[in-house]
Amino acid sequence: MSELVVRVAGIGIYGPGLTGWPVAVELLRGERAFDAAPPPKPAPVHLPAAERRRAPDTVLYAAQAAAEACAMAQAEPAQLPCVFSSTQGDIAITDYMCATLASTPRELSPTKFHNSVHNAAVGYWSIATGCRAPSTAVSAWTDSVGAGLFEAAVQVVEGGAPVLFAAYDAAAVGPLRSAVPLDCGFALALVLAPDSTPGTRLTLRAATDAAPKDTLAVDWARRLHAQNACADGLALLHALATGAARRVRVGAGSHFALQIEVTP
Predict the structure, then answer these.
(1) What's the pLDDT at 212?
(2) I want to staple 61 with a disulfide (CB 3.0 to 4.6 A). Which of 40, 109, 187, 223 is the partner?
């Protein structure tokens, strides 16, 4: 890879203290005090009420951020190819599946079972929005934000059309909690568009050194990053919120990182 150049047409975010992009902008600029209280349960507009009731938190967080990004970009979700990335999918459902299979396997819930697959969130999104464009589910452990962003940028450049990218995770539960670094829900989304369109420009290159990925210096961002790996994207969102030209480093896989040049 030499470089990939895309534009940011829309942004969405949902998590503790970050109930939408306008609030996140104020926090990332230091214009508002951070409130770590859990946010209200997401109620994404594209999911019917019945679907929202049975959908797991991973789906709700992902769909909430994705809907905000599409609205900001004035993009029709049904027309957008999408890339959804997650550290481990839905750990709460994985815990339920393991516990039930080990104790009373005949009582396994069909609804829980179909929510256990890694592409459940992008599946819910595609069905709810009527999207028949290609969809991709990505996982690269704690580098899933960078891996998903890289995949989405490749699709934009190759296809010459906008792509929705969403990264999401929910809190881990049960025995897996000791191994999976997820203590809260968090999601971010970007609508990426070809370089010929308006918006902040992102130039993605493979990092050529072994420097660590970027994190924000403020306490609340470091705490949130320790609670949810998808908060890895906060350094990039900080650059987008401040409107300053800068370079951001984001992990994108084992021994692979992206150097992202942000140009307003």
Answers:
(1) 73
(2) 187
